[in-house]
Amino acid sequence: MTSTRPTTVSLRDVTKRYRSLAALDSVDLDLGSGITGLLGPNGAGKTTMLRVMATVLAADEGQVRLLGRDPGDPQARTEVRRRLGYQPQELGFPRGFSTMAFVNYMAVLKEWADRGRRTTEVRRVLDLVGLGDVATKRISRLSGGQRRRVALAQALLGTPELLVLDEPTTGLDPEQRASLRGVLADIAATSTMVISTHQTEDVAALCSRVVVLDAGRVHFDGTVPELVALATGKVWMAAEPDAAAHASWRTASGRYRNVGEHVPSGAELVEPSLEDAYLLLRGAVGLASARSDDTTTSAEVA
Length: 302
Fold this sequence. Notes:
Layout: E1 9-18, E2 21-31, E3 34-39, H1 46-53, E4 61-66, H2 74-82, E5 84-87, H3 99-109, H4 115-128, H5 144-155, E6 162-166, H6 174-188, E7 192-196, H7 200-206, E8 209-214, E9 217-222, H8 224-229, E10 235-238, E11 247-250, E12 256-259, E13 268-269, H9 274-301
Parallel strand pairs: 3-7, 3-8, 5-6, 6-7
Antiparallel strand pairs: 1-2, 1-4, 8-9, 10-12, 10-13, 11-12
Helix pairs in contact: 3-4, 3-5, 4-5
């Protein structure tokens, strides 16, 4: 996908391996301002990609540029980290810390030296994520959703130019998720944000762009409407699940929603959702992979 907006993240032929497994396989991607949603199944390479963008991991091959700098250079990497916010999938909390003490500790690590300004900033981000009323509560006594918001609060310190968020809405109730969407949308007006999630509704509500990653490769890069359009005419309702469909499930009406390439003649077509389009793309990717494996196996046998 091309864009006229300034590039904040640039990945060129980026590969990252864990032993013989390529978690990222020759990835090319440019990201500018706004929110990009990263979709893909477990093991697709999403967290690895985010960790490369957050300077936690270095690529084995290819070129990475963040905020116009090469994170392979120690001095440039330090400068990038000053302008970066990162919420990992799992964040360890020091034992005994209160909510405010932990975020304050992270602010110290991010070089907020002035105590007064630091305290004001810590309170600001806690209020942003709806945790101002539990600032003095120990993190060990918070709910899972509240802990996710503590992790997000530390990422928001200093209004970073680049925000890398791994599953930010996990564990939140619908009201909290709706509130958080508003916060993230406001921040994205002046920053680049990358969100990895399994929640297609969050992508549909928030993201101007979506990237689908599978087996370490980018299989789609475009807008949400462009992805949804791929499923037009390929989603239908029926009394029974269709064996030829990529996905089928029973709805509240008792009828089955089917998503697939081979639509029966006279089928009752319905408007596709982002989830439908994602499932259709996943099915097509899986079929292509299976055909590739079959071809490879046949060649090896021959």
